[in-house]
Amino acid sequence: MDPVAISHATPADGALIAAMIAEHAGDEGIEAIGQADGYASGLAERAFACLLAEGSAGALGLAMFYPTFSSWAGRPGLFLEDLYVRPPARGLGVGRLLLAELARIARQQGATRIDLAVHEGNQACGLYAGLGLRQLPGWLIWRADGAALAALAANR
Q: Is 128 annotated in the active site?
């Protein structure tokens, strides 16, 4: 494999991030609605951060994340929102490199953990388990969006 460079995305990378997120969503059978300007402004406002993996053939993948805080530990953490490796680069260690860099960032920031949510059947589950990540039994992900979010916001 060619050398892989991991760098921090900047607002100028908004279009690249939008393209890779759209590819990732397509892999999951979902339509991504994010636009380049949304990713660019999110990066500029530090709403999230993103690592980019690049090789001689161009962009290979990304890891999009943001800070969290553990009320139980009283310490910061990171949430990995998306880890995506483009199909030609899968199986070459790109995901592992992105996760290792994210772990280094977590340690530098004093974070006690990295959390992520994974769809059932995601092929990366083997990678996560092989790197020592563990699935938390008994935890469920809940979401308020669309009409439910609007109704909840209107409920006082």
A: yes
